Amino acid sequence: MSSPLSPAVIDAMRARTPGVRSTTHFNHAGASLPSAATLEAIHAHLLREASMGPMEAGAAAREQTERARTLAARLLNAQPVEIALTTGNSPGWGAAFAALGPWRAGQRILVARHEWGGNLATMRLVAQRAGASIETIPSDASGRVDPRALEAMLDDRVRLIALTWLPANGGLINPAAAIGRIARHHGIPYFIDAAQAVGQLPIDVAEVGCDVLAGAGRKALRGPRGTGLLYVRQDFLPHLMPAFVDTHSAPLDANGDPVLRDDAARLESSEASLALHCGLANALEEALEIGIDNIRAQIDRTAQTLREELAAMPGVSVLDQGVERSGLVSFNVAGLDAMSVRRALATQGIAIGSNGVAYTPFDMTSRGLTQIARASVSYLTTNAEVDKLLAGIRTLMR
After folding, report:
1. Which parts of the sequence belong to the Aminotransferase class V domain (predicted)?
2. Does some domain include residue 1?
3. Is 109 inside a domain boundary?
4. Are 125 and 172 part of one and the same domain?
5. Domain stop point among 289, 308, 335
6. E strands within the chain?
7. Are residues 232 and 367 in the same domain?
């Protein structure tokens, strides 16, 4: 049974996290603070490369670096052959999208209004060239994507349903599994951007019903920047032809013909940082040891406390929507733009994020928002840090 973490457990984890001694970090949705053990795993492999040579060190440490794939599969209730290790969320998502192959005029892509701007840019470039369309699925009264509205939009021209599970501009959590049931029933490919979900929410890809799910190492997992996870359902893999390959993803056979790998690694590149894979493996192991259910319970409790405190402050508007909410807390301060709030708090040693329209253009535009300030919590976040953030905002308002 899941439960929030005890103060003693949090203190012990903070003692093994160097960054908490130099910053009050509320930008875990941008990139979280790695543990000392994750940093050491990276450093140890770099030392192997320096002493043995990078290629030789990679061969010697193959079992350790491949551990990231096995642990990622455990995290998502997938098989290791369904996991590709990428350089980040967008590279993984983009590689899978590009591998769908040519688009034709009239084909449709359906997205929730919260879709990440980078994904939209990728889809628009393709859709504009081919004459395909990108259409927004309506949201329900709570702000979440509406599965019933999606069902009413479907026809035989819909080639892809794309969902950003946890939007970058606030605490809303979309009903990913409900969308997945519709996609599976109609046999439509379903891509999930889980950049903010991986490591923060329990994820069972079979329950969610997606064909592709992309995640980042640097956010809730507390892994190194430059790492990501890409799940591709094994039965869906034959539908993906990589936009480019190399000797890792499609080695040449005796006749000189490329042979695509029969696992998700057909979307990987040989040009990968094995040192970062070592760090990612450690971060994954730490998250699994804590328990994602427990991480979720702790983040939910801290984020809810922060929301309630911010909502009680005159001049502060909490902007989060949805029914179930994540550890991303969005707000605005009257008379101050979000970028100014972020910069002013930084001078007090407090790190938050700030998003503009480009991050989630459909949602921001539909809600009349031009900027939001974003304080995102981790299971490392303490009540004392919440109090410091609140005090910092009060100082700005004075």
Report:
1. 36-389
2. no
3. yes
4. yes
5. 289
6. 24-25, 83-86, 108-112, 133-137, 158-164, 190-193, 212-216, 228-232, 316-318, 328-333, 350-351, 353-356, 371-376
7. no
pLDDT digit string (tens) for 358-389?
999 999 999 999 999 999 999 999 999 999 99
Question: What is the predicted pLDDT for the residue at 84?
Answer: 98
pLDDT at 60: 83
Which domain range does residue 186 map to? Answer: 40-289
Residue 187 burial (10 A CB sphere; 0-12, 13-18, 19+)? exposed
Instruction: Give the C-alpha separation, 243 to 232, whole Å.
Output: 16
* 268-318 tens-digit pLDDT: 999 999 999 999 999 999 999 999 999 999 999 999 999 999 999 999 999
Q: What is the CATH number of the domain that holds 278?
A: 3.40.640.10
CA distances from 137 to 11, 147, 149, 163, 370 (A): 43, 8, 7, 10, 21
Low-confidence ranges of the chain (pLDDT < 70): 1
**Is the residue at 123 inside a domain?**
yes
